[in-house]
Amino acid sequence: MENRLYQSSYLAEILKKFNFSFSKSLGQNFLIDGNIVKNIVEKSGITKDDIVLEIGPGFGTLTEELALNAKKVISIEKDHRLMEVLDYTLQNYDNVKIINEDFLKTDLEKIFMEEAKGQKLKVVANLPYYITTPILERIIENKKYFSTISVMVQEEVARRVVASPNNKDYGSLTLYLKYNCESEILMKVPRTVFMPSPNVDSAILYLKLVDRDFDVDEGYLFKFIRSGFTKRRKNIMNSLSTGFVDVSKAQLKEILSSLELSGNLRAENLSLEDYINITKKYTEMIK
Q: What is the pLDDT of residue 21?
């Protein structure tokens, strides 16, 4: 039987061969379960027509499965120690490009134009948990280069992304991603399928990037949202007027009244549509 990177005996051989030690500071927890690896690629809908961007390939366990199913895989790896390992583990795949860079500093336009030749990328990755939100934000800020995102995240983060109003998991991240994406949790993943095991369970989060036509000032919209959740225990009248300094309580009272929203509601009681309507009323008021 051909060796696959998710086989524990093969992984142990690689660890020994390269005398590799995991870095806690880089959030290194590598997938070691073949069924999970296959499910991620299958549920992400990866085909031979797709170009995939992977962030943090580790030993290449997921990269290998992606290479078997995609047209091309571009993997961004920050840890320079892994370049030699990846050259070895992925040597049989000529459709894989490994780039030794920090994803948060990578020139995404260059990758899109030179590596993907202008074809939108699908992101598939087992993300370092300590920088999940900055990575997602950077992808969305550059969403013209991407079509879908399938990422392993902490289960808690996945719940926050798909949360509904009136839920403790509902927050500014929920609304930011809801504005830009359609989201769902594809599957839950136990901590036991990683090497080393993290302290939390995980989930595969799927995001389909969409262009919304809400006709709203996005700058003001996300200021209102951030203000609301910065002091989420306060009612919306207090949190918005203290967090968003350009709006007075008198203005807020008028806006909320016109929308038939109580000033005693809290940030988590308002839907994305509510925040959009508040923003529209505010921008009309200050014109």
A: 80
What top-level class would CATH report for the domain 8-209? alpha beta
Residues 55 and 135: their CA atoms lie apart, in Å, by: 9
Element (H, E) at 239: helix 236-243
Domain 218-286 = CATH 1.10.8.100: yes
What number of H helices and E strands is found in the chain? 12, 9
Q: Between β-strands 30-31 and 121-126, what pairing exists: parallel, antiparallel or unpaired? A: unpaired
pLDDT band at 19 (very low <50, low <70, confident <90, very high): confident
Parse the chain into domains and list their residue ranges: 8-209, 218-286
pTM score, whole prediction: 0.90
Count of C-beta atoms within a 10 Å radius of residue 250: 9
Fold: same for 8-209 and 218-286? no
- Within its chain, how far is the Cα of 284 from the centroid? 33
Rounded CA separation 158/25 (Å): 22
What SS3 class is residue 76? strand
Distance of CA 106 to the CA centre of its chain: 16
Per DSSP, helices labelled H in 23-171 are 34-43, 61-69, 81-89, 108-110, 132-141, 155-162
d(CA 268, CA 168): 7
3-state secondary structure 148-206: EEEEEEEHHHHHHHHCCCCCCCCCHHHHHHHHHEEEEEEEEECHHHEECCCCCCEEEEE
Sign of the alpha-carbon torsion through 132, 233, 244, 209: positive
How confident is the model over 193-231, as pLDDT tens digits?
A: 877 778 889 999 999 999 888 999 999 999 999 999 988
